[in-house]
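Handout, section B. The chain below has 424 residues.
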Amino acid sequence: MTDAQETAADTALRTTGGGPPDEDVPADGLPIPLLEPREGIPPVVETDDALREVIASFAAGRGPVAVDAERASGYRYGQRAYLVQLRREGAGTALIDPVGCPDLSGLGEALDGVEWILHAATQDLPCLREIGMVPTSLFDTELAGRLAGFPRVGLGAMVESVLGYALEKGHSAVDWSTRPLPEPWLRYAALDVELLVDLRDALEKELDRQGKLDWALQEFDAIASAPPAPPRKDPWRRTSGMHKVRRRRQMAVVRELWQARDAVAQRRDVSPGKVLSDAAIVEAALAVPANVQALMALPGFGHRMGRRQLEQWQAAVDRAKALPDAQLPQPGQPVAGPPPPRAWADKDPAAAARLAAARTAVSALAEELNLPQENLITPDTVRRVCWEPPADGDVAAALRTYGARPWQVELVTPLLVKALTASA
């Protein structure tokens, strides 16, 4: 543990008293296992009447609210929330079932203006937004840990290194769409928000001590104010193993199979990978089977698959085979922005020199500040500025255009100006 981390841990343990209030950190310095929520496992909220009680309780609570959500990634279609956990002083902990209570906009409105504490906020905000919960301000404990220089920023690692408690993380990848939810899972879910407020307070003090608190607040504001991400264009191109597919007709097979699989997965509400694997899609694309018998011989389409399913996938292959050349997908995607850096030396040696100088400078400053390079400035922003430097020389304005926050602009602009001029 670094000196900064020891300071944060000591401060937190002296001032927050996270976890069971009567326990102290043992003399051997080992983390204390956190096995039960302070008030026990709350009942799952799954009716409108129970939800109204929670809304009233949390509206009357004090201070920030800890928020978490559990999804069923790998089991269900999409990224919807299957459990929402909250904790606030004066209100305790609540576990809400979004299946029974699909509209949590009333809860979101009750918490309007309250700071939300989340861990890895960008992962949970999309599913929370779907059920009507959108924060106006937030504190991201994972991002705070990155900015403070912690080497491990998972929730369990942060709680252990900062607060001295060990969270049981054995249920993070379970199928949260299961009903009823087993008691051990509910205990795990409640403990995920048990110490978030304590962790937030300790990290705020550490960031302030390092002179990085304003940076963090700017980052949090950017996350809270960011619009929903637009739908990804041509998502079928992200099929694992796609790099093996070279011909346009084969690419059309991938597209047709991907779209057919997605429709089935959405209708059945299961993960697309449980319907048909990416590996099977790529095998079919490379082989372009002539009929069901040929398809059956391919990996992923074996004897366990029913005739009706095989005919469904072969029909998708046949649709791709029947497309006129003009409707076949083009190789690759239109590149928005600079080409891959590996091609710069041939395409524009001067730009390659600018990028090398900029990367070296950014890396050195990030190491000096003890934070990840990508948090100091995104690699894509550096590439864009180095590939096409601003005509008027206003690097700061260019950085702002690409979404850099004021603290990043202030720190990085001098580095990029020097890199752009030194290699001119």
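Note. The first strand starts at residue 32 and ends at 34. Compare this with the example in section A.
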